[in-house]
Design goal:
This protein has helices spanning 17-22, 24-32, 41-54, 63-69, 75-83, 89-104, 175-181, 192-206, 218-221, 224-232, 281-287, 354-361, 365-377, 388-411; strands at 110-119, 129-133, 138-152, 155-164, 213-216, 237-241, 246-248, 254-255, 270-271, 279-280, 294-301, 304-319, 322-334, 341-346. It has 418 residues and is an alpha+beta fold. It folds into 2 domains: 17-217 and 366-411, no CATH class; 237-252 and 271-362, no CATH class. The two termini are 36 Å apart. The relative contact order is 0.17.
């Protein structure tokens, strides 16, 4: 299903050189809103130059290419600013989240977590490994990352990023590799769901950006630890899960078995032996009667309304073979052929309107649009830096450049003013 909408997929990311020139004053005003987070005026200057370069319309977006095309550019100074500069990404992105709140913030906004990959040659770039690469659709040499985005009815923006460093990089024999790439001492291996949880918890702790939902794909939705973290934070989620996910249709009884004459006394709670086993969600979908399914419009699409068939079931999540929270199981079946079945779990209350669940089920596409726009127009994948600091600095600048154009789209609904 193509979830991209005509209303929200608007123009504005492919700026012409004239656009950039005409908007120089707007870029300076935008830059001024976070410039004081840099320690030195030289850093503020090279940040502005970097943003100008990322917004240029054509050509390579690596530092050398940008510096040579920019008036006042300097290859060595820009390389030092991005790859080695001692400026605080967290402070910059914290201010960025405040700017996103000002331009897009809404009580029913949605946080979206997703991964994206960057094909790379060689073994020297930080975190590079042979792993599944979404960009090439196969196991390939690449870097993998997890991003956090925000979406509401007005638009969408990237918020934060984490580089995924595979387990092999933390083996004793890889210490030289870690030091060469500048991975900070004490950095530990984190799974992708753990990285996503860290970003969400950090943002939530600031309280600066309102949101009503967290949504994600199966990589995160199939992680019980990730979902439990959201539940502990009292955050409402609607997560894609695999069709092998199991649920109980009624809450099972539990007990601690009585002690036996021999052996250790049982201490772990278990499901009662007379309880019906949990069912797979794909089997549950197949058992639903036709009257359980209803057609809803997910959103307005480029070629007309996007519709799908939905069914809703209240169930009990399975957590470590014990009953977890009460959840919505949301089934979405495409109308065309082949009839793809997608399944979501949500900890939303039982009285949540079904149309709201439908709306949120269609709110994962904005982060894909962010990746497409940032990679296609803003140089997200065009970097050549190999270091930990350089990777994070580059992605921070891309996030800032992306939001600058998001703000332009909001200010100039009918296109840029000439």
């Amino acid at each position: 299903m193509n979830d991209k909408t005509k209303a929200d997929a608007g123009p504005g990311f492919a700026l012409s050189a004239r656009d950039v020139s005409c908007l120089a004053h707007e870029l300076r005003a935008y830059h001024a809103q976070f410039a004081q987070k840099f320690y030195r005026k030289e850093q503020r200057y090279w940040c502005l130059k970097s943003l100008q370069g990322l917004l240029l319309p054509e050509g390579a977006k690596n530092i050398e290419a940008l510096a040579l095309r920019l008036e006042g550019g300097n290859v060595r100074n820009m390389q030092q600013f991005v790859g080695e500069g001692a400026w605080d990404d967290a402070a910059i992105l914290g201010r960025h989240a405040e700017l996103v709140a000002a331009s897009l913030g809404a009580a029913d906004g949605v946080l979206i977590v997703d991964g994206t990959d960057f094909p790379k040659k060689g073994s020297y770039s930080v975190g590079v490994a042979r792993q599944y690469c979404g960009a090439t659709g196969k196991v390939d040499n690449c870097q993998a990352a997890v991003f956090l985005a925000y979406a509401c009815r007005r638009g969408y923006s990237l918020l934060d990023r984490r580089l995924y460093v595979p387990q092999e990089w933390f083996e004793p024999g890889s210490q030289d590799r870690r030091e060469r790439c500048g991975i900070p001492e004490g950095t530990a291996f984190r799974t992708k769901p753990e990285l996503a949880r860290e970003m969400i918890e950090a943002l939530h702790a600031t309280g600066c950006l309102p949101f009503g939902w967290v949504t994600c794909d199966e990589v995160f939705g199939d992680s019980h630890e990730f979902l439990e973290g959201l539940e502990e934070g009292k955050l409402r989620y609607l997560a894609d899960v695999s069709v092998t996910t199991r649920v109980w249709l009624e809450r099972p009884g539990t007990w601690v078995p009585p002690a036996r004459a021999r052996g250790p006394r049982p201490s772990r709670e278990r499901v009662r032996p007379d309880t019906a086993p949990p069912v797979r969600v794909d089997a549950l979908a197949a058992q639903l009667p036709p009257r359980a399914w209803r057609t809803y419009q997910v959103k307005a699409g480029e070629k007309g309304p996007i519709r799908a068939r939905f069914a809703f079931v209240r169930a009990v999540a399975v957590r470590d073979e014990l009953p977890g929270p009460d959840v919505w199981v949301l089934f979405r079946r495409s109308l065309g052929e082949p009839r793809e079945l997608k399944v979501f779990l949500s900890n939303a209350p039982a009285d949540t309107p079904r149309r709201e669940l439908v709306r949120v089920s269609g709110m994962r596409w904005p982060i894909e649009s962010c990746f497409e726009e940032a990679k296609g127009c803003l140089g997200m994948a065009g970097y050549q830096t190999r270091s930990w600091r350089g990777w994070h600095h580059h992605m921070t600048l891309v996030i800032l450049a992306h939001h600058f154009v998001v703000r332009l789209k909001l200010r100039h609904k009918k296109g840029l003013r000439r």
